[in-house]
């Protein structure tokens, strides 16, 4: 019998007004069909599972078959207890037509299965500090090299309905507060499935990642036990020690969630590819 996977996340918030959570939690309830569906998906267990006795292989593992092949590949193995996996090219969020599905708690494979990565939690080399541009505030950094394709951390928070997300955004604008709400757009059989995550009051280490027009990371939706995706941050290039972790807030699949924008906010990424303004796209 398998022992259920335990996510290891030992990070904390310096701001005691923010509650640290390692994984997404449900937002406030509301009497709508959208909220009912969201709660149902949040509390559901994916029923498919593999029956692999040893290594999960694409031609025999049900999870990898759904994923259209191996999600990760072994980059390095220093010794038997230290293995580094990175995302396969097919897992790139801009080109992948298959979902990224990890083996789950119902699967028969071992905890050391190569299709278990995001569920184990963030890498251990991250730290939060003030950025050089004080207007940006805090940022997320790494104290060691992060290889291209590596999982960094999840962007976790409260899972909201669209109505709740837009209400919170407008309220943040009204009171001059920072907006952390993100909308993930997934294109599924001719329709767009949206997931809203807000780490403003309940969030993990991922809430400190700033925007860049020339980012070193991107978000990949990864499913483990439930139909709702984890917003997994993966590096898209080698990231040097003491470099800031960034991703593009306005990519095609992960959008800053806004409504009725009348003003554009200056971008502070200071990259050579900076577009000048924050990429606010309606969701």
Describe the structure.
The structure is a single chain. With 283 residues, the chain is mainly beta. The chain has helices at residues 33-42, 62-66, 162-175, and strands spanning 19-20, 25-26, 72-79, 82-87, 100-101, 126-130, 138-142, 151-154, 158-160, 182-188, 191-198, 202-203, 210-211, 217-223, 230-235, 246-247, 254-258, 280-282. A six-stranded mixed beta sheet has the order 2-9-11-10-17-18, with helices on both faces. A hairpin with a 2-residue loop joins strand 10 (182-188) and strand 11. It is globular, with a radius of gyration of 19 Å.
Task: Using brief descriptors, characterize the structure shown.
six-stranded mixed β-sheet, 283 residues, mainly beta
Quantity of strands, as a count: 18
How would you classify the quaternary structure? single chain
Molecular shape: globular
What is the ordering of alpha helices and beta strands?
EEHHEEEEEEEHEEEEEEEEE
- Largest beta sheet, briefly? 6 strands, mixed
Distance linking N and C termini: 43 Å
Approximately what portion of the residues adopt beta-strand conformation? 25-35%
- Widest β-sheet, arrangement of strands: 2-9-11-10-17-18
Question: Low-confidence stretches at least 5 residues in length (pLDDT < 50)?
Answer: 252-261
Q: Helical proportion?
A: 10-25%
Q: If you average the pLDDT, what whole number results?
A: 87
Q: Total helix count?
A: 3
What's the gyration radius in Å?
A: 19 Å
**Structural class of the secondary structure composition?**
mainly beta
In brief:
The chain is mostly beta strands and 283 residues long.
What is the element layout, followed by pairings?
Elements: E1 19-20, E2 25-26, H1 33-42, H2 62-66, E3 72-79, E4 82-87, E5 100-101, E6 126-130, E7 138-142, E8 151-154, E9 158-160, H3 162-175, E10 182-188, E11 191-198, E12 202-203, E13 210-211, E14 217-223, E15 230-235, E16 246-247, E17 254-258, E18 280-282
Parallel strand pairs: 1-12, 2-9, 5-14, 13-16, 17-18
Antiparallel strand pairs: 3-4, 6-7, 8-15, 9-11, 10-11, 10-17, 14-15
């Amino acid at each position: 019998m398998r022992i259920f996977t335990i996510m290891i996340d030992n990070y904390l918030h310096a701001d005691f007004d923010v509650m640290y959570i390692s994984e997404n939690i449900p937002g406030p309830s509301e009497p709508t069909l959208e909220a009912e569906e969201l709660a149902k998906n949040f509390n559901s267990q994916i029923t498919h599972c593999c029956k692999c006795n040893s290594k999960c292989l694409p031609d025999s593992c049900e999870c990898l078959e759904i994923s259209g092949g191996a999600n990760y590949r072994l980059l390095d193995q220093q010794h038997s207890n230290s293995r580094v996996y990175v995302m396969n090219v097919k897992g790139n969020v801009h080109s992948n037509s298959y979902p990224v599905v990890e083996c789950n708690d119902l699967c028969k494979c071992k905890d050391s299965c190569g299709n278990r990565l995001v569920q184990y939690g963030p890498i251990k080399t991250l730290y939060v500090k003030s950025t050089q541009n004080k207007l940006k505030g805090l940022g997320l950094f790494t104290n060691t090299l992060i290889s291209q394709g590596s999982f960094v951390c999840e962007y976790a928070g409260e899972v909201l309905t669209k109505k709740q997300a837009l209400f919170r955004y407008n309220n943040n604008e009204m009171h001059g507060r920072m907006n952390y709400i993100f909308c993930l757009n997934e294109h599924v059989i001719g329709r767009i499935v949206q997931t809203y995550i807000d780490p403003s009051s309940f969030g993990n280490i991922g809430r400190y990642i700033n925007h860049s027009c020339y980012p070193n990371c991107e978000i990949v939706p990864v499913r483990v036990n439930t139909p709702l995706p984890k917003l997994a941050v993966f590096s898209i290039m080698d990231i040097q020690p003491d470099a800031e972790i960034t991703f593009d807030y306005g990519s095609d699949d992960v959008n800053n969630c806004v409504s009725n924008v009348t003003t554009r906010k200056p971008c502070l990424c200071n990259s050579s590819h900076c577009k000048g303004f924050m990429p606010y796209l309606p969701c």
